[in-house]
Each structure stands twice: as C-alpha cells, then as structure tokens.
Amino acid sequence: MRTGSFGLATSALALALVALAPAVLVGCPENSCFLKICQGSSCRCSISSCSDGAAFDTTQNRCRCLKGYIPIAGQCLTPQAANAYCGVGRHYESGGCVADRCRPGDEIDQSTGYCVSREQVASNIGVAVGAGQKLGCPPDQELIVDGPTAACVPRSQTCARDEVWTGQVCAKVGQCPTGAIWDPALAQCVQYAQGSGDSGLMVHVGQWASANYGPNGGMGTSGFCGAFAKKPHSFGIVEGASAYVRITVMMSFPEGEIARGVVQAVTVFDASGNPVPPRGAAEVDAAARSIFSTLVQGGGRASAPTSSTTVRCAIVHAGKPQPVPAVGGL
C-alpha cells in the first residue's frame, strides 16, 4: 500500500522537491494523493493512499489498477487472486466471473472444480438414464453436483460472486471504481475506502461488510449466499424441503491493520437457532473467508477494530435430478 502523511511535507522536503521540479502540489481532489509533483503539464503522484496494486492517476484524479492487476470487488487483484475470488467452478474472464467449461455431457463438481460425466453423477445418485436421455432439472432450476451428491436448486441460489438475482436471472453488478463496491441493498456503488492524511487508506469496514455479505438483520447478498446455498446436502436439507440459515460474520483487525484482519462465520438454522451440520458450516466459512481475502489484500487502516453483520440465506432443495430428453428438457 502506498501511504504517507502530511507531516512528510515539511519545509525541508518541500525545498528539496522545488529544486527538482517547477511545481509541487500537496493534496488533490478526494484526498487520495498526498504529494503531487508536476513538471510543466506532466504530473505524478509521489505519495498516495491507493491500495496495493493501484496507483493514483493524476489525469483522472483517482486510483487506478496497475498493469497486470484486475479491478474487481473494489480492489486491484492479480489474475490468480481474481480467479480465487470467483470461487470453485468459476474463473475471471472478460470483466467478470464466468463458469468453467466442460465438454458436452459433463458437469462441474462444485466441491472440487473438476469436470465429471453425467453418467457418473447419475450412477452416484442412483438414477437410471436411458438412450436419448440425460440427467437434468426443470428449466427454472440448476443441476448442481457436489461430490457424490447432486441436487436441483433454484437458479436464484447459483449466482456468482459478482452477480445479483433480479427475480428472473443472475445479473452482473454495476462496475465501481477502486475503493468502491456495488451494494445490492442500495442498488448503487458505495465508497468504502478513502484517503486519510494521517493514516493513508482508511477502510470503512462496516460499509464493506454490508455490501459484500448483506445488511445487518437483512438477507445475504446473492454473491455470498450463492457460494453455498446451491449445496443443500451440506446442510442436511432433503429433497423438496427448504430452510433459512442465519449467519453472523465477525471481522477483527489487530492494531487496526486491514492486512492482519481475520474473519469468522457462525451459522445456525434461523427457525431453531441450532447449528447447521459441520459440512454446511465449513461451506459458509469458506465463502466468508474467500470474500474477505480481497479486503485483506488491499491493505489500509480499519475504521473500527471489529465489525460484524448478521444475514439470512435461503437453502432450497427443489428435488433430485431426473432423466430428461437429451434435446430440450422437461
């Protein structure tokens, strides 16, 4: 992270810089550049509050990702980190998270990310698929393979990390500048990080948590819930049944450093308050950690030593995959 303080611009430093350049400008719009140096009409930012992987663009007066870094989730990530953010079975491509591709007749195992044949899946779940048929689900549902199990789930439970459910489809969220992220509850970009003269990059962790996981007391975001809600077997939800789970995501930042932040998710059934099965709890915790890792990579200072949000996610097991016509469907 590029940090600095106005205290660096002492008289001695200013005199030294004047000797090197005709003009030295301290500060800039949005307080993201603490020390701007100009040679004629050409300017550069010497000290900024941009997150790791970003630099201050003096022509646009904002932080922008460096070459080789990808703007995603308000951060500048390496290609490897962007793929990890998209989660198992997906990768980053052409501006967003897209599903990995398998050869025709295969499905992605959401527990491993590997492609498996539908014949093997059918055998695992005890479904006989005849000639001219394939394993499938009704049009408004998605076939999800999760290790030795498979289920038909509503498409609303299958959104990618950078998508929201519109009521009909999973749609990509709006693109936001570095330091801002799309908040589904507000339907707009919200600024969660900004420059601070004394502390460098200040991250409003409560705002970030609300946009990424969901507002406290409300529904979880499609991008968060979709990472695990598509796996009803992990939560012990039988065919034709459904349940809401209540998740408390707790974040802490030792000494206020984002880079040292840790996150923990506690998941219970909303109706009873009983803990979900260990496999389901592990799925939720993994999703929370994966999203949190993007915040940690950006660095900066936390606006509070701890922050938490409690959200609800629906887990619906629509039914067991069944043989459908190889051309068309149910």
Automatic annotation (TrEMBL):
Residues 1-23 form the signal peptide. PROSITE patterns: PROKAR_LIPOPROTEIN (PS51257). Keywords: Signal. This is Secreted protein.
